[in-house]
Amino acid sequence: MQLDYRYPTEIQTLVITVIVLLAALALTTPFTVGVTAILFVVGFALNYLFVRTQIEGLKRRAVRVTATQFPEIKALVDECAHRVGVPADTEVYIKYSPVMNALAMGVGKPYSIVLHSALVESLDPDELKSVIGHEMGHIKFGHTTLLTLVGQLGSQTFGIPLVGDLIRYVFLFWSRSAEFTADRAGLVAVGRLDRAVATEVKLAVGPELAKRVDMRELARQARESRGNLLGTLGEMDGTHPMMTSRIQKMVDFAASETFGRLRPDMRGINFQEARAWQPAVPIYAAGNTACPACGKLTTSPMATFCMHCGAKLGQPGQCPQCQTALEPAWKVCPRCGMRLA
Fold first, then answer.
1. Are 329 and 336 in contact (CB under 8 A)?
2. DSSP three-state, residue 257
């Protein structure tokens, strides 16, 4: 199913980056603008050449995943490509590295994904699908191309003090938003929130220590860090969000209507898993609705899926009690009087 499930702030932060750039250009002399434009074009051309050289180099120093070479991984790649929706000629390579990492490259077809050997050796098939899907998300949503183009912006100061730092920090906001988008693609690929979370934990502490991590305690840690100003400031200098932030965003996405449409086969499973990571939600005092599958009360009368078992409760935009069509802003059903919020 083709849905645009980008993280909401990705486009916004990219637009802000461009606006800051244009403002910087407006404050410079025409001569500086001309020189900067030339340098930018030359930089992009060199970056493109560098990326193409890297991809061609992979064919000489890494092993390509094919139907006869690592066929079990090729099966995972094909499944992820189908789920995420990337070009069929996207190539996946494995190269030796003791560091658990992966990356996607390419400015237009053909795109390439590189998996480090430590990653392949340490992750189970579902966890590997989460990583492959993540990298395919970078391809699907144009991040590899944008990084080649927009990546030049971080080095531009336009002769104005602090402008380079401002552009860099705005660009980093976009980079982290792009990672959240790619995490969503990884979750779509694997379908299982618990496996996507397990992957993040292994990448954070290593495969051996990950076996000793208490997921309930980690969920508590994530809830405690949510909304912490100092923690947010600590992320500002990184291209990637911190582990607990990434997990929390995946949990939110797993409980969304969009994910339910993308992976209806996994809806109930992910609702069960997401409940442990969500802050306590009070049951509404008036107009409580019982789930027809498990009999438990829903956390919101407007919920379309039960947060306890994942069963479908009703059609979006309808009163769960009398099925009357509702407007989004309504707080009370006009027919039966049920409170909706």
1. no
2. helix
Percent of the chain scored above 90 by pLDDT?
32
Query: Which of the 8 DSSP states describes residue 278?
Result: S
Cα three-residue angle 174-179-185, rounded to 5 degrees: 130
Coil, strand, or helix at residue 121? helix
Q: How far is CA 196 from the centre of its chain?
A: 11
The pTM assigned to this predicted structure is 0.75
Highest mean pLDDT among 37-41, 133-137, 336-340: 133-137
- What DSSP state is assigned to residue 103? E
SS3 category, 312 = strand
Please tell me the distance from the alpha carbon of residue 294 to that of residue 305, in angstroms, as a whole number. Answer: 12
118, two tokens: 């430590």
CA Rg value for the chain: 23
Provide CB contacts within 8 A for 122, sequence distance 6+: 100, 202, 206, 207
- For residues 168 and 81, what is the distance between their CA atoms, to the nearest angstrom? 32
Domain spans of the chain, in order of start: 9-275, 280-341
Give the pLDDT of residue 302: 47
User: Distance of CA 206 to CAs 201, 238, 326, Å?
Assistant: 7, 20, 49
The contacts of residue 180 (CB under 8 Å, 6+ apart) are: 7, 10, 241, 246, 249
Mean pLDDT across the stretch 70-91? 94
